[in-house]
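Thread: adenosine monophosphate complex, take 2
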Amino acid sequence: MTDQNRPPLALPPFVPHLFSEDKFHDECGVFGICNHAESAAHTVLGLHALQHRGQEAAGVVSCHKEQFHSHKSLGHVADNFNAQPVIESLPGDSAIGHVRYSTAGGAGLRNIQPLFADLASGGFAVAHNGNLTNALTLRQLLVSKGAIFQSTSDSEVIMHLVATSTYLALKDRFIDSLRRIEGAFAIVALSKDSLIGARDPLGVRPLVLGKLSDSSYIFASETCALDIIGAEFIRDVEPGEVVTINGKGISSVKPFPLQKPRSCLFEHVYFSRPDSLTNGTSVYKVRKNIGKELAKESNIKADLVVPVPDSGTPAAIGYAQEANIPFELGIIRNHYVGRTFIEPSDQIRHLGVKLKHNANRGELEGKIVVLVDDSIVRGTTSTKIVDMVRQAGAKEVHLRIASPPTTDPCYYGVDTPRKDKLLASNMTIEEMTKYIGADSLKFISIDGLYRAVCNRNRDKGSPQFCDACFTGEYPTSLTDNTQEDTPAQISFLQEIRKKT
Ligand code: AMP
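Output below.
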């Protein structure tokens, strides 16, 4: 049978929302180290430091004399990599690791990274932070050509592209595959002789390069993962850069068409740890600046500035300093429960907020309180916290938010609900104020946020950051999201859900 008279392949229907709801989207942290006798132990330490980037699952792949070893598990790093036998099962002088976040539906062993494949040229492992915006389209194409996918992770597309690339050298195959994907990626990859770190052309998700001894190099999502192992921060992996470390030393290429970088603004607002450096700048300092700008824009006469811990704390400190209002811990956080966002159902999320925070009544009674948080997504946290502060006797509660209204979902790896669940995309600020129950509600302006982060207003023609969650302006094409769900797609979605 020739290709011409072959019946068309029955492709699965296009399902743009399958993975957006099923948590195709991940918030993740990646780590990689080479030329170190204790590579697995260091990777586990690095993942400890990156735990805030993903609490659903963790995995490590190590390489010892061309043999690859792997340990992956659902749950926290501390729960699954705490025993010596686990570390001993990961021998070798190079290793990569991954922590993963997703909510209901997308969890499952087969989606845990690093992904590993035995390719013609040897083993290859990949750990990916970010989200690809053409993964479904590529997946459809690959499946139509016979590829058998083992997970619902967008990152697996990269593996298949590497496996089927027509280039010879593994590094070239990898680069070839990166040139075909769209969206956000900070990737650490491991072959039998090389450790590779790569960042998408816009540099949406972060990736840094560090050094431990004379010869041991590290890639990590954030500098806090270098600190934990005593490594020195060398520099950010640049947007569009692919850095390879092997026996010949360290080399770098920029294989993508040059673009103006647009790293993620939300990393500064919420996602990165405050003790990390993002684009070489202290996240903590930037968050304090955001609080200062917020105070300049929306100050009010008050007795106290109170942070919503922990995410609102640096901004609240900046706000209090700028407004010259006393800063107090009016809400105490219980550190032994996870982030509320992780809880799958609205009901549990409500419970989560109560589990996590308690009002410090003695500080709040009879006071006019400025409450500072980093962001409002669904509005669950703010509603509960404002109520809690009022119940504790505050006279007035004025909510100040250290980011502009979150109006649009992120397609680049920060898990946000669909637009219809985002409070700010459904309500005016006046309506939100009533819904949350605050006496007043103000968000920092987008220009104010830019000034705090980079000392300049937003360049409207060519913004300095990816700020799509606040502006709806996506810096890449959203190839997988151009079609609406049809009834056939929805039923396909339900079928797949049953299986996953
Ligand atoms: P919500 O309760 O849905 O309005 O969520 C807002 C709270 O969740 C804020 O206090 C943030 O600290 C936190 N948050 C915001 N975005 C995210 C995210 N993508 N993942 C996890 N937590 C988040």
